[in-house]
Design brief:
The chain has a domain of 158 residues: Rossmann fold. The protein is 36% helix and 25% strand. It is of the alpha/beta class and 258 residues long. Helix 3 runs parallel beside helix 6. Bound molecules: adenosine-5'-triphosphate. The site of adenosine-5'-triphosphate has 14 residues, from strand 2 and helix 1. The site of adenosine-5'-triphosphate (ATP) has 14 residues, from strand 2 and helix 1.
């Protein structure tokens, strides 16, 4: 498999705060890769930097062999690196169908857009039932489905998902991940998903990285990571909440399931 995304020594700061340092990462064509980490580990910073929303201080992002760091977010998106942001960020006062059309705003092929909307509705029949409803009235799970569908409308080569499980029940999380895997399989779209829910992400992805305090502290196949004692203890329901590097981690509480 050839390399689609190659990240080298990436570093991002917020004013005087280094949120991410020395990050190296690779996604091959058609692959699903996950980055796991606790609250505040730097996962959103990583995706926002890759998507061109934040400029890195240092390092390189190569996509299909060309450097994309420093490009505007809309140009990165046009090249097929498309982000499903944390918290979905759908347009609440537009209908479900209008939101999907917004995802296709760079496209000129009306027929292709219609075909892809039909595909999204096939993956997410609940969106079809609500196609003319304001997106703000959808449940949290349905909004996540819409955010994924909207990103697909931009014809991603790499779909980047920022914590798709956030705020969702275990059942809905499972459903969302099953559909993400289906989209990947049916369209050969590569996926980069950052998650706090390690169990579900390791079960679906090929390779995994673990991020703590802005640095990658482990990288391996998901199968190998799932078998490592320290990963199991820190990320798969063990009692070690100090992470692999022994640093104190704050875990996000999910009090609300929708
Ligand atoms: P979460 O799961 O809570 O989204 P995360 O792993 O995505 O966490 P980031 O949101 O990338 O982590 O945050 C990484 C670090 O950067 C944290 O210490 C955070 O407080 C800090 N940070 C994030 N955004 C900003 C900002 N706009 N200004 C200053 N510091 C920030």
């Amino acid at each position: 498999m050839s390399v689609l995304l190659e990240v080298r020594n990436l570093e991002t700061w917020y004013g005087p705060i280094a949120a991410m340092q020395g990050v190296n990462l690779e996604v091959k064509k058609g692959q699903m890769v996950t980055v796991l980490g606790a609250n505040g580990a730097g996962k959103t910073t990583l995706l926002n930097t890759l998507a061109g929303v934040i400029d890195p201080f240092k390092g390189q992002v190569c996509f299909e062999g060309a450097e994309v760091n420093g490009l505007d977010a809309d140009e990165v998106c046009r090249r097929g690196l498309i982000l499903v942001p944390e918290g979905r960020q759908i347009y609440p006062f537009l209908s479900v169908r209008e939101n999907l059309n917004m995802g296709a705003y760079t496209r000129k092929d009306a027929e292709g857009v219609r075909r892809d909307i039909a595909r999204v509705f096939e993956w997410f029949p609940r969106l079809l039932e609500r196609e003319n409803q304001h997106a703000g009235l959808l449940s949290g799970g349905e909004q996540q489905m819409l955010a994924i569908g909207r990103a697909f409308m931009g014809q991603p080569k790499l779909l980047m998902l920022d914590e798709p499980s956030l705020g969702l029940s275990p059942l809905l999380t499972k459903e969302i991940f099953t559909i993400i895997s289906r989209i990947r399989k049916e369209t050969q779209t590569a996926v980069l998903v950052v998650e706090q829910n390690a169990a579900i992400a390791l079960a679906h992805a090929d390779d995994g990285y673990i991020m703590e305090l802005g640095r990658i502290v482990a990288a391996d196949t998901c199968e190998a990571l799932s078998q490592k004692t320290d990963v199991r203890e820190a990320y798969l329901g063990g009692h070690n909440h100090q992470g692999l590097s022994g640093t104190s981690q704050r875990w996000k509480r999910r009090k609300t399931w929708r």
